[in-house]
Amino acid sequence: MTPLLDARDVQVRYGSLAALAGVDLSIHDGQRHALIGPNGAGKTTLLNVIAGATRPQRGTVVFGGRDVGRLGPAARARRGINRIHQRPAVFSTLTATENVVVAALPRVIPQRRWRPGGRRRAAQHRAGPLLEQMGLADVASVPAGHLAHGQRRQLEIAMALAGRPRLLLLDEPAAGLSATEVGRLVELLRALPRAVAVLLVEHRLDLVYALADTVTVLRDGQRLAAGTPDEIRTSPLVRQAYADGVA
Amino acid sequence: MRNEVIRWGRGGVAALVLVGLVVAPWVVDDYTTAILARTLALALVGVSVALLTGVAGMPTLGQTAPYAAGAYACAVLGSRISDVGVVQVAVAAGAGAALAALTVPLVVHARGVIVLMITLAVGELVVTVLGRWRSVTGGTDGLAGIPAVRPFWGLPVLATDQARYLYTLVVAATLVGAVLLLLRTRAGLLLRAGRDDETRLRASGHRVPLLVSGAHVAAGAIAGAAGSLLVVAQQYISPADFGFDTSALLLLGVVIGGTASVGGALVGAALVIAARDWLFGVLPGHAPLVLGALFVATVYLLPSGVDRARLRPRPTDVPPVHPDRPAVREHAGAAPELRT
Ligand SMILES: Nc1ncnc2c1ncn2[C@@H]1O[C@H](COP(=O)(O)OP(=O)(O)OP(=O)(O)O)[C@@H](O)[C@H]1O
Ligand SMILES: [Mg+2]
């Protein structure tokens, strides 16, 4: 079976620093793939390469059987790669609902094409339930800039989901969330349709083990290990990497 | 509740201003009426500046370029082909849009100060061309004796200052209404979103360059239409009407009025133009200095303009998180788990 996403030999350099030194990563349909590693390992950089926000100096990214290396982030989003950023990125003067509407617009199909405002209405229909799911129904009409940090992160998750992703890239979705919010997040990710593949960058290993079926470990821009959560948990190599990275 | 009151209050003020504008020509003399008509044209250009600067977040100093294109297109049309107002407005808007479309490739990928510099250069280039292309534009002397307009086929020509003023008022009000409607559509929502965070807009799959181009062309059309109103108001145009000082004043007016609000931009632009005309009389030669000082004071004291100064609370504080380096705290718990 050809994977949904196949990134090969990805290399990103910042001056003399190799943020990614030839990394391979493939994700299959419906997979829950976690990407872990110490600070500065290159996790966010790899997400940026997959989403099209960073051009690698070398390497290919194939998504849905097509080389998307030349496409920008917008074109990739329209093909089904949606993401949340490590630092929540939302439209601060727009209300929570408007944020989700904007995110939903590129991929909604209006019921009647020729009716003015049809797309917007269709997007509005998607926004309500998503905000509800993320526990944001009460603040639906509050400008996103006035939301608390954790709420903004949840809003961005709602936005990523509004884009009907085939591949959802989550960069530390639990950072800054309260215990209740983390619980809701785990529930939500578990309930995602199997048609959606997830690439999860997360430092909280309890969440990784709860959600992922495959784990890739990065360190210093290289893939250190990959396997099932059990294999990774017991790998001496990985323990060593983390011990070094934190020390 | 409080927002309701503010909304009603604003609606009331807008209605009062509109009534005042309608009765103005019967209250003031002809000279002032003509000046008011010209100010309306400039305020409409101010709206196009606000559309780019405030709504879309792309400050511009070049809206005098499509304004001039619209004015000259209208003047040539009015002198040689048609004195019908709707035709003139449409052709002027088309000329403004076309000029904006020509310059879009220069600005579509630039942002911020770079755009200010590019648009400024385009504006100056247009003024230079107007001064040189004598056969069409009359050079630095400009075009005079442009025939009076008739609003619609079959209607009489507008022979008085009052009538011409009311014509500019109706056209300007209609176009401002159209802009306000536009801002309520999907396009308006996306423009505001782009001002907030363009990267996020791209990440959601929106074609940002298309949006930016569309905003420039739409703003160009509005400025072009405003150019046709200037022709009606003055019946005379020259390159001096479209100089850098006009661009700077309009940006100043829009900043004073509150960049994100069309109503604020209208009031701000009108006030600044009126202030310039008044200062020109009382402090000959010093008007630019006073307006410059006003600009600096505005930008420092009221970052979001008069319209918003007291209405918008500051966003709640974000914990300082570097984009690529989140608070270490969040990570501390992770690693030890692996070691256990
Ligand atoms: N735009 C940039 N310019 C220069 N260096 C960068 C840039 N972006 C990332 N880096 C560097 O590349 C390396 C990898 O960064 P990256 O953000 O991908 O790490 P990460 O694994 O996401 O770390 P964290 O867990 O802290 O988020 C780091 O050393 C970082 O400093
Ligand atoms: Mg990161």
TrEMBL record, chain A:
Keywords: ATP-binding, Nucleotide-binding, Transport. GO terms for molecular function: ATP binding; ATP hydrolysis activity; L-isoleucine transmembrane transporter activity; L-phenylalanine transmembrane transporter activity; L-valine transmembrane transporter activity. CDD domains: ABC_Mj1267_LivG_branched. GO terms for biological process: D-alanine transmembrane transport; L-alanine transport; L-isoleucine import across plasma membrane; L-valine import across plasma membrane. One of its GO terms (cellular component) is plasma membrane. The keyword Isomerase does not apply. Pfam families: ABC_tran (PF00005). InterPro entries: AAA+_ATPase, ABC_AA/LPS_Transport, ABC_transporter-like_ATP-bd, P-loop_NTPase. It comes from the Bacteria. Residues 5-245 form the ABC transporter domain. This is ABC transporter ATP-binding protein. It comes from Micromonospora orduensis. The lineage of its organism: Bacteria, Bacillati, Actinomycetota, Actinomycetes, Micromonosporales.
